[in-house]
Amino acid sequence: MAKSQERPKKEKSIRYFDYSMLFLIIFLLCFGLIMLYSTSSYYGSTRFGNAAYYLKRQLFATSLGVVAMIVISRIPYRFWMHLSGLAYLLALALCTAVIFVGSEHKGQSRWLEIGPLSFQPSEFAKLAVIIFLATIVYKTSRQIEEFKSLVKVILIVMPIVGVVAYNNLSTAIIILGIAICMLFVASPKYSHFVLVGAGAILVGVVFIFAMSYRAERIQIWLHPEEYDKGYQTMQGLYAIGSGGLFGRGLGESMQKLGFIPEAQNDMIFSVICEELGLFGAVSLILLYLLLIWRFMIVANNASDLYGALIVVGVMAHIAIQVILNIAVVTNSIPNTGISLPFISYGGTSILFLLSEMGLALSVSRGIRLEVV
Amino acid sequence: MKKDDFFVRSRTYNRKKIWIMFLAIFFLAMFLIGRLVYLMVFCSVYYGQEAEDLHERERDIKAARGRIIDATGTVLATNKSVCTVSVVHSQIEDPEAVIAALTKELGMSEETVRARVEKVSSIERIKTNVDKEIGDNIRAYGLAGIKVDEDYKRYYPYDTLASKVLGFTGADNQGILGLEVVYDEYLQGTSGKILTLTDARGIEIENAGETRVEPVNGNDLYISMDINIQQYCEQAAEKAYVQKSADSVSIIVMDPRNGELMAMVNYPEFHLNEPFVLIDEMLPEPESGEEGEIAAQASALTEEERQDLLNQMWRNQCISDTYEPGSTFKIITAAAALEEDVVKLEDAFYCPGYKIVEDRKIRCAKTTGHGAETFVTGIMNSCNPVFIELGERLGTERYYHYFQQFGLMQKTAIDLPGEAATIMHKQENVGPVELATISFGQSFQITPIQLVTTVSSIINGGTRVTPHFGVEVRDADGTLVEKLSYRTTGGIVSTETSETMQYLLEKVVSEGGGKNAYIEGYSIGGKTATSQTLPRSRNRYISSFLGFAPADDPQVLVLCIINNPQGTYYGGTIAAPVVKEIMENILPYLD
Question: A311, B224, B546, B547: which one has the fewest Cβ atoms less than 10 Å from its Cβ?
Answer without folding.
Answer: B224
